[in-house]
Model the fold of this input.
Amino acid sequence: EVQLVESEGGLVQPGGSVRLSCAASGFSFSNHWMHWVRQAPGKGLVWVSRINRDGSMTGYVDSVKGRFTVSRDNAKNTLYLQMNSLRAEDTAMYYCARDFDSGDGHWGQGTLVTVSS
Amino acid sequence: QSALTQPPSASGSPGQSVTISCTGTSGDVGVSKYVSWYQQHPGKAPKVMIYEVNKRPSGVPDRFSGSKSGNTASLTVSGLQAEDEAEYFCSSYAVSSDIYVFGTGTKVTVL
Done:
């Protein structure tokens, strides 16, 4: 069974940092592009970032460029999102997803990151 | 890159059909074959219902169908059932900027 389990996000102060992780199991992790998608409370979905199979190519939405870094460790079957210089508007549920827009897409259950003093 | 435009709400009685639009631009929906639709129930992760404009993943009922014309994609849910009540989002790969864009979301109510 495909499983994607995000680490706990939590409360972070403005300007602070947090690293999210997403543990993958039940499939060949290194064979898939991975994505992060976020959803502010009561709002819509926003694509945040993607990384290719070997980690050599990444992409970001403009609002997080220069602040967020996506990475992966295929030996550990784990996806990461390093989030720096956090702002109130980064408060959201963060989902990791495998091939999210494909017929074989899978999403994690999400982890809430709250940026507040 | 702006979000794709969807109507905030749609509704229908059980057994009826409802169609949701998703309007983008010539840089995303208009040129991309990667247009998808997601169903999200409250407190749950999204689930893909349609991918690549009109393909259904295994396990999704054939009551769900997708299409595209120009810069607008559409999701039709036929034979509405109570469990179809949810929020629906579209997404598209934006070829011109190499990112993905989601729609604003449509709340579907089964009357």
